[in-house]
Amino acid sequence: MREKVGLIGGTEVSRIRSNRLIATNTSGARGVYYNAKTGKWRARLRFKGKTYNLGTYKNFEDAVKARKDGEEQIYGEFLAGRQI
């Protein structure tokens, strides 16, 4: 039954696939944050209750690329073949 409402293994698949930003996002990219203290961009993502720090970058574009690469690597097999 849980799979029918979009939960698989405690993970909400529809939320992973969504490109929608949360209301508090100011960078314009999911999982990319500016750290004013260091003057750098940080990329991270959460999956199955674990936070993956994907690095700190001088350029915004590099942080966005790291986030996208992280999504492919971490979400990749989980999302393969799932229709939600």
Oligomeric status of the shown chains? Answer: single chain
How many domains? Answer: 1
Classification by helices and strands: alpha+beta
| CATH superfamily membership | AP2/ERF domain
**Beta-strand share of residues:** 25-35%
CATH class descriptor name: Alpha Beta
The tally of helices reads 2
Quick one: biggest sheet? Answer: 3 strands, antiparallel
So what's the overall shape?
Answer: globular
Question: Terminal Cα separation, in Å?
Answer: 13 Å
Low-confidence stretches: none
Strand order of the largest sheet: 3-4-5
Total count of strands: 5
Rg, please? 14 Å
- Which series of helices and strands comes N to C? EEHEEEH
At CATH level 3, the topology is: GCC-box Binding Domain
Question: What's the CATH architecture name?
Answer: 2-Layer Sandwich
How do you describe this structure in short?
The protein has 84 residues and is α+β, with helices and mostly antiparallel strands.
Q: Keywords for this structure?
A:
two-stranded antiparallel ribbon, three-stranded antiparallel sheet, 84 residues, GCC-box Binding Domain, alpha+beta, single chain, globular
Helix/strand layout:
Layout: E1 7-8, E2 11-12, H1 13-17, E3 32-35, E4 40-47, E5 50-57, H2 60-79
Antiparallel strand pairs: 1-2, 3-4, 4-5
